[in-house]
Amino acid sequence: MLVFCTQAQEKKQITSEDYDRAVSMLYPNTSKLLDNDIYPQWLPDGRIWYRNLTKSNKEFKLYNPETNQFLVTKNQQDLVTKGQIDTKSKGDSYTEILSPNEKYVAFVKDWNLWIRELATQKETQLTTDGIKNYGYATDNAGWKHTDRPILSWSPDSKKIATFKQDQRHVSDMYLVKTQVGAPELEAWKYPLPSDKDIIRIERVVVHLKKQPDVVFLELAPDARRGTLCDDISCEGGFDDVEWSTDSKSLVFVSTTRDHKKAYLRIADAKTGNVKELYKEVVPTQYESGRGAVNWKYLDATKEFIWYSQKSDWGHLYLHDATTGKLKNQITSGKFVVKQVLKVDKTKRIIYFTASHHKQKGNPYYTYLYKVRFDGSDLTMLTPEYGNHSIRFSPNKKFFIDSYSQVTEPPVHQVKNLEGSLLTILEKTDITRLKASGWVAPNPFTVKSANGNWDLYGLLFLPSQFSKNTNTKLPVVVYIYPGPQGGSVSSWDFRIGTRDCQALAELGFAVVQLEGSCNPGRSKSFHDACYGNMGENTLPDQVYGLQQLQKQYPFMDLDRVGIWGHSGGGYASTAAMFHYPDFFKVAISESGNHDNRNYEDDWGERYIGLETYDNNGVSNYQVQANQEYAKNLKGKLWLIHGGMDDNVPPYNTYLVVDALIKANKDFDFLLIPNARHGYGKDASYIMRRRWDYFVKHLMGGTPPREYKVRFTPDIRN
To answer: Most exposed of 11, 143, 162, 248 (fewest Cβ within 10 Å)?
Structure first.
């Protein structure tokens, strides 16, 4: 008998020093190497303050845009004293909402709405008929179950717009805390797509009188839905609600359960009478912007500004509020209006952020514009190439413009409403960061799988890696399919994009790709996967890697791994089941593997309502990961927090059960008391993630039980 032997591939030993190098690439370890890295903040009086750190120095600065003067001190207390900064609390907090006249705060107690007078601390109960799961201003259902009241004060501080929320009929969710002795049960309302009816809100206006008066609007209960995302409180308050300047009328948008219809309505605050002003119906899902609700009511001229994607691009339109008819389109072109930040009703000018109106460069970069109501004089106020973060002063006369590129650090400057530069606050200095060996990611562009769009992404490589080498790098894809977000969470300059560069330091090529179905582009781009979230941008990910390898031949597509968290956990498992010959290793964290087990509003926004075919098969079922468990070939590690109140762990249990029944080998870790983000266990999971890819994708041996440690910044 002849025996042919081949030399076994030598396994790479990854040392603790290699992990040390990886950890050195993590934020906050890298943050101490940045100079002039600031976060300027507006004070209520219209001045700006910030702390500035350099290699060996710490300064506190105060800037007045009215006088164009700086005050510089060595400590914060001197800045407060010399700058005469008012540090008194105004009473607003997470659980209490301050009135415009700053005399009262509103809060929820025992399912009812209360106010407290700040001068006397006297509390007054405004509603009396709130009961468990049928209370006022509550934000206590689904993955958001908080004590923050959802309401809107009238400009005169005499009325509060809110709702009475009925959730008595929807599904309950249960989690069990692991502890010594009897387990502790956590139970709350968590609506699911299978619920016959969802949470309903009865809109009310509460009048602050000696005997408080609650006026219910003459309207059937609304679905708990919003135009900006899947909730009614995406911006932190009561979204889709505006008061008239005289506090006599309340304007609001009602959205249907499936997000396909949006109704603009106006109510008489005294009588509760409701009139419909406008309606938009879309075949998929209506949204009012990116990061902000963009419709505005103009009571003085009886007009309203409406946001629509009916041209396939998100734009602003001016309508007559008495008839609902279109007066004119305000913005147009192949770019996306994102956030309306200021409306000058007197000069009839709108200030808004948008992508580049001439389609130059990265389409995800954001700029500030102004335009007249009639659509004339469109002006870019921040023409510097990059991604601009805009913060207006309290009086809306000036704005802070912090801009950067993926490869270029931030510049922080102050401008007036004409876009004229008043001062550059600071330019971030990365000299010491570069000297430490840090490298920026490599931006790239590839085509979508269907060839219709250019896709953008980032490639992270080891800092010591030479592209002119014969060495092959295994590839790790970080994925977040959205569709409310994307794999590249921010297009700003970031010294630590998750742990992508850290993982690259261990010898991987790490890729983040924004696939079609991710937001921020055209409506058709965003809706490419509508109705089938199980696609998870995976065709784009596979085709994108194949194109990228032609630019970077050292990428080893015979060794491709993938990982993601939440929606990314859903996607990474789907990658192993639907592309088992392409993806060899996956780590799936906290995935919503079956959206029948996830909160109703997300799935119903991007998939639609649950329906059944002639065989009784649900449209949600065909997208559920456990249905394809039999296809697993490679290494899969499933992770979930046992107290995850966003994506309950039962999502992952379904996949685990299916894999067992399919007689598949896999790995599973339940973190007993962890919530969705893992909290204090996050560093442990990150290290174990590195171990898993080193062992199963690279074929190496990681150091045993490495401890991730962060170095504090001594300048703080």
So the answer is: 11
